[in-house]
Specification:
834 residues; five-stranded mixed β-sheet; alpha+beta; elongated
Length: 834
Amino acid sequence: MLAESHWRTQTRTFPCPPHSGEKMDNTGYCSESFNSLQSGTSDEDMVEIAGATLDFSSTDDVPPLDRDYSSGGSYGVGDGPNGVPKLMDLLDEPVPGVGTYEDFNTIDWVREKSKDRDRHREIATKSKESAWALLKSISDAFSGWLLMLLVGLMSGALAGGIDISAHWMTDLKEGVCLNGFWFNHEHCCWNSNETTFQERDKCPNWKSWAELIVGTNDGPFAYIMNYLMYVCWALLFSFLAVSLVRAFAPYACGSGIPEIKTILSGFIIRGYLGKWTLMIKTITLVLAVSSGLSLGKEGPLVHVACCCGNILCHLFTKYRKNEAKRREVLSAAAAVGVSVAFGAPIGGVLFSLEEVSYYFPLKTLWRSFFAALVAAFTLRSINPFGNSRLVLFYVEFHSPWHLLELIPFVLLGIFGGIWGAFFIRANIAWCRRRKTTRLGHYPVLEVLVVTAVTALLAFPNSYTRMSTSELISELFNDCGLLDSSQLCNYANVSVTKSSSDSLPDRPAGQDVYTAMWQLSLALVFKMLITVVTFGMKVPSGLFIPSMAVGAIAGRLLGVGMEQLAYYHHDWVIFRGWCSPGADCITPGLYAMVGATACLGGVTRMTVSLVVIMFELTGGLEYIVPLMAATMTSKWVADALGREGIYEAHIRLNGYPFLEPKEEFSHKTLAMDVMRPRRSDPPLSVITQDGMSVEEVESLIAETSYSGFPVVVSHESQRLVGFVQRRDLVISIENARQRQEGVVSASRIFFTEYTPPQPPNSPPPLKLRGIMDLSPFTVTDHTAMDIVVDIFRKLGLRQCLVTHNGRLLGIITKKDILKHMAQMANRDPDSILFN
């Protein structure tokens, strides 16, 4: 669970100004001080995240070091016997910064949960003493629910604004409303009395750019003008998006879900969930979607909701000061993101549980449900699409499905699995090329070229010109008597009015065949262009493009099945359930099943995906087809490659994430993985009572480890505890400032009682308070599969290896990840921000 700094890790504590291209494990360190900790990292300090060069100097999502923290050390003040200063227990006066974490480090889940339990006990004890303390106790218990309410309201409001803005700016590429430029096409024509049934989108108030510029919308010149304006608007929107991301918030690029998963596992990436990221991601998400690129807003909405949750955590002390508690809020926020993206509160909770969360206690489940409910209610109140629905492609089907239709549904599942595996391999290969070649040096140019190609190829085809959400809505649609879509232009046959709303199967007209060709071209276009679009330096979600690919394939198969049933209803497979004049096949249902299969193949979601899709359709009747397609796509995709798209991007970017779904099947032991190895220098340790301040500072300066075991002596190597490098540096610096007489020769003690000191010796430092007295240990013959389980389930930063009580070495999460990479014949040096 914890992305470590192993000792041999980079902790990035106080790096010297790095050289260009400097990697994380730089071992050159300047003289370290508490002031340097407070001042943040160098502005030049860059690292590759999600394929972008990012500045980690922002500290938006980590509490400042000058706040009050509840753990500390002990430092001498005042005079005692023999002229030796007496020692004051600084647990009564906490040291700012002790107990906090460096950037790109992992939280200590055990310590954070222990701190929270201590806080609970203190509140419970005090609540019995006075009415005011009881009131504070009730307020503390209620604060979690209040925070969930605020996260739901804020995320729902932002999602509504994003939906409305994206709809308007997408229509702006094609024309403008004369009644008010702020109206989109649909709203502009709502009150017009001059629209016809066949051309309901045409009204005098809405003018295309050709009508405004050349006075007519007919002829080749008008077509070229509309074409040119469409491409120009698309290029403008994408240029603004990539420029804003690059200039103000590099973290705002991509979908954000791989990074959210890594953060929820305990890793710290400062600024990734900060206010600048939230602001820029919200604006650029609208621009990127409106540009017509093959991307969606659903994945980035999870990032937006998590930013809201992180920012609002700072209003409540117990969440601001405890990283583990904050991650419970972020898990709930991820559920909120999916809730507002798809209008699926239950699906959102299951998505957070199944796909992104690492630690998900029962109370987080309840609070996630409440926050998702509030967010969906807020979005419904805003009503961004004007149809009282939370999504653009909500649909209801009326015809039941037949058992024999499971065969084409399973075929769609196979297609979804093959497409998912192909997409992951192709996209990862392209992203790796972007990271390792000069292509990655020109993010703005790449976005503009992809946008230009997308716009030039998309405009001639009406199904690629429209927004992807509108395309999915059109493909999901069940044709009725009032539909004027090309897809519903069947040959006229005598229709007897039945009690249901459905129409019988009819022969396809010329427009339907034309639509089939256009959809076939759109399918190839979407499959190829999405590969190069996902991962660019703009906010880009993958849910909608994946669903579009599957929906097109499903609609094509559905229309084919419908025509087969109409012309060959006497075949054995149709006989008995598909008589002439009956509504046997629903092409829209096939589109929905195909969309589910492709999204499942790419993300490897199962339960949450099925729930999201049936919440979209409002019908439980189609759960079995959805389940069949989802399971088939997952089996096929897993057979071709074990990783989903998010896990693949986590590995590509070298994030220290220990995948809980991955089995460790190798027969190695702890001694095979621990450091130091036989060829390495001896283990760097601190003795409990034999080292001076100068010796400890020298050890810190010469190494880049994130912490040090504390032993009885160098000879015995009997383990006493473990002390974090950051806490040690801050405590020594703090003691120098606050205690007169502390010099380099002062002794440092980690013992419970300080032995008598010579009369003229400098005052000692007692740092037992910052030492972990119960570090996790395993013996050298412990099987590595057990060690991996311990790291996953307890969220350790490191684990010490002993033999008969004698310290032998240390294992960190990075060691485990490197070992697993070696066992899988991958480059072990790719771990941690490659």
